[in-house]
Amino acid sequence: MYRIIITLVFFANTVLHAQKKPSEVGLYKIDFQSYELGVLPDGMMEIDGVFKVAAGGSGDKYLEMDKEPLSENAVILGPSLKGGAAVSAKIRSFKKRRSYPRFAIGLHGISGFRLRVVPSKGVIELVKNEESVKTAPFKWNADEWTSLELIVLPEGENWRVEGRAWSASARKPVKATVTLSHKGSPGQGKASLWGTAYSGRAVHFDEVTISPAK
Fold this sequence. Notes:
Structural class: mainly beta
Oligomer: single chain
Shape: globular
Strand content: over 45%
Largest sheet: 8 strands, antiparallel
């Protein structure tokens, strides 16, 4: 009897460990509705800044990045992925006079690719290793949720990086907003959410989805 129990425990632990392998990770999705206010959900880690679950006047919950410190802040979340991957999220922030926020989503750790909206320049850009490597025009609508989607796909010996951005009042574009062909490995690591509160207002994140991509 004891041998059977031990065998079952060993088997369960083996299955749980196997589920954590990047190649076997499935869909990860979080919308923050089931989390307590004022806490950082389990499985997330702040790189810089202060992040916590907050709620709007309607009671809908989201992840809020505090307006301080005034630097590029980030939180990582979800499974560690290698190779083809995708991340999407809704992000909302606000301007103040002529001051604008900046926000992004990322893949493969903090050194991986990011899709970043820069309203002060009217562009969206792909960022790698802290440097902007490709830009495209994008009109940001203040106070409105903006959806971002970043996908990294194999393309022969290279990798195709695609970014899409659209406001809540618009439809998701069929064609990528910005694209890049990248030589070399895109890296490995968790997805990330980024924000810089240049306007002195908080940045909100919601409906985050992360998955492998082929």
